[in-house]
Amino acid sequence: MSEFEAAPGRYTTVSGDHRSELEIKRSRFITVLRRTETEDAARALIAELRREFHDARHHCSAFVLGPGREVQRSSDDGEPSGTAGIPMLEAITKRETFDGASDLSDITAVTVRYFGGILLGAGGLVRAYSESVSSALASAPLLRRQRMQLYSVPAGHAGAGRLENDLRSAGYAVRGTEYGAAGAVITVALPDTPGADTAFRERLASLTAGDTAADLITTEWIDL
Question: What is the dihedral of CA 108, 114, 117, 122, to 10 degrees?
Answer without folding.
Answer: 10
